[in-house]
Each structure stands twice: as C-alpha cells, then as structure tokens.
Amino acid sequence: MERALAIDPKLDVMVSNAAAWDLSEFVDVSDATWRRILSVNLDAYFVLSNRAARAMKETGGGVILFTSSIAALGHGRGCTPYCVAKTGVVALAKAIAVECAPYNIRCNCVSPGPGDTQQSVDIVGEELMDRWRAEGFPAVPANRLTSVDDIANAFLYLASDEAAYVSGINLVVDGALSAQTYDVPES
C-alpha cells in the first residue's frame, strides 16, 4: 500500500481479495489455525482498508471492495474459521460504509458462490472440478460454478460510477444458490 501511495497518493479503488482455508471440524481447530485463518481473512482486510480509507479521506474519496463468500451467509461443515472470518468481512464493510460515507468513501463486498477457480481445484481436486465443469453443478439452481468473469463483473460494477450511491452491501454472486431453501422430495 505504501509503495502504491508513494507513486500516486490518489487511490481510487482498493480491493482486498485474500483467502486462507482449513478443512477441519470445529473440535479439531487449533488456536494457531484459528489465528492464521482470521489473520488472512479478516485482519488483513482491516489493515489494508484502514490505510486505504486514510488516503482516500485526504484525496476526496474512493471505493473499498472486499471479497467475502457465501460462507458468510451460512455455515459449511469443516470450515468454521473461514465462515466466521468472511462474516466479519461483511460486517467490516458495513462499518466502513457508514463511518466513511462523509468522506465520499464507499465500501462493499462481493460474495461468490462455489467457483471455477484455482482455490476450488486445490480444495476438491482437478478430477471433480472437471466433472462439474462438464456436467454442471446441480446444487446451484443455475447448474454451473461461478466463473471468474461473473465475479470480476460484480467488482467492476461496484467500482464504477454507476454504483455511486451503492455502499454497505454484500453483492452475492452465486447463481441463486443462497436464495433457495431445499427441494421437496418427489417420493
């Protein structure tokens, strides 16, 4: 951040897009794992956005954007630290939006659903990802994984002047996954 501001003190948009995982049951999460996951997935967002907001305040405003996750909307088994951190990211964005609005600083989140990303490959493996790419992802009503372009377009909108009065939201990009409850069994 300091190097970027040394080159140009006018910071228009800052995106924080960090993620760390641990796939352990809650009872198996160590203190060290908890601290590591929250450090990457929440503390780093605070540190960067705090510095960005200070710079933006001095230069007339800007946009702070965070990558959260649909994990902030509910809980998946085996990823408690991640879910808690991403919920905190949404709360942090809302706090920044409220407190920094007088300085013309907007803050929003993008929360992708299951995505066709390298992180997903790292978690579930190439074979399963290839199958989902070919056959669809039936847990999602849109029957596909969230693409990198889907996510990028959400960020581009929120960073644009078209979203000039949009602040404090969590834009969910998940093909209606989080909008559904459950399917009624046929038999």
CATH topology: Rossmann fold
Give the strand tally. Answer: 4
How does the major sheet shape up? 4 strands, parallel
- Counting helices, strands and paired strands, the structural category is alpha/beta
What is the number of helical segments per DSSP (H or I, 4+ residues)?
Answer: 6
CATH architectural designation: 3-Layer(aba) Sandwich
Question: Roughly how many Å is the radius of gyration?
Answer: 18 Å
* Percentage of residues in helical conformation: 40-55%
* First-last Cα distance: 57 Å
Q: Report the order of strands and helices.
A: HEHEHEHHHE
Strand order of the largest sheet: 1-2-3-4
- Strand residue percentage: 5-15%
CATH superfamily grouping: NAD(P)-binding Rossmann-like Domain
Flag low-confidence runs: none
Tell me the name of the CATH class: Alpha Beta
What number is the mean pLDDT? 94
Quick overview:
The protein is of the alpha/beta class and 187 residues long. The protein contains six helices and four strands; from the N terminus they run αβαβαβαααβ. It has one domain (2-172): NAD(P)-binding Rossmann-like Domain (Rossmann fold), CATH 3.40.50.720.
Describe the structure.
This protein is of the alpha/beta class and 187 residues long. The chain has one domain (2-172): Rossmann fold (3-Layer(aba) Sandwich). Helix content is 45%, strand content 12%. The chain contains six helices and four strands; from the N terminus they run αβαβαβαααβ. The radius of gyration is 18 Å and the shape is globular. The protein starts with a helix and ends in a 14-residue tail after the last strand. The mean pLDDT is 94.
